[in-house]
Amino acid sequence: MTESETRAERSFVLLFRLLMAWTFLYAASHQGIFNPKFSAAEFLGGTKTFHDVYAVLATPAADPVLTFLVSYGHLLIGLSLLVGLMVRLSAACAIALLLMYWTAHMDWPFIENRNNFIVDYHIVYAVVCAYLIYKRAGHVWGLDGWAGRLPFVRRHAALQPLVA
């Protein structure tokens, strides 16, 4: 790989990481953190294809916990991607969340509406997050490289995969 290709590739990795950070931070701004009317259970209550799976989570008793987890999960994923710290963990959590949304929007074989046949933006975003894991995106102008060199992280092997 030439120097310009390396620089271009690193620039795209950073761009994808920042775009996904914005996506999750923007989602967090519209949920329970800044919008007290947001309800994750209300959202999941409208599922069609996997209604029986999500009905368990859409109960009034589970709503406060689920809403908290979704809202702050988006915020933490977005912040992690923004600063490039623990990107492997946050991108893996993002993939799980995106796949959950994909199935929650599903009216098989359509996603959200008849314009999206099987694949929609949730799948595209999940693939971008997988790419960020593969390319070690936290090491591209992020804090994962710095955190990986900390003596505390080096002494505790369980922490090393988080910033690898």
Description of the molecule:
By secondary structure, this protein is mainly alpha-helical. The chain has one domain. 64% of the residues lie in helices and 5% in strands. The chain has nine helices and three strands, in the order H-H-H-H-H-E-E-E-H-H-H-H. It has helices at 3-29, 40-45, 51-55, 63-83, 87-104, 121-134, 144-148, 151-155, 160-163, and strands at 106-107, 110-111, 113-117. The chain has a three-stranded antiparallel sheet with strand order 1-2-3. A hairpin with a 1-residue loop joins strand 2 (110-111) and strand 3 (113-117). Helix 5 runs antiparallel to helix 6 (121-134). The chain is globular, with a radius of gyration of 18 Å. The model has no long low-confidence stretch (mean pLDDT 90).
Number of domains: 1
Order of helices and strands: HHHHHEEEHHHH
How is the largest sheet built, in terms of strand order? 1-2-3
In this structure, how is the largest beta sheet organized?
A: 3 strands, antiparallel
Number of helices: 9
Unreliable parts = none
Number of strands: 3
Distance between the termini: 22 Å
Overall morphology: globular
- Name the beta content range: 5-15%
Topology of helices and strands:
Elements (H helix, E strand, L loop, with lengths): L2 H27 L10 H6 L5 H5 L7 H21 L3 H18 L1 E2 L2 E2 L1 E5 L3 H14 L9 H5 L2 H5 L4 H4 L1
Antiparallel strand pairs: 1-2, 2-3
Helix pairs in contact: 1-4, 1-6, 4-5, 5-6
Concise synopsis of the structure shown:
With 164 residues, this protein is mainly α. The protein has 9 helices and 3 strands, in the order H-H-H-H-H-E-E-E-H-H-H-H.
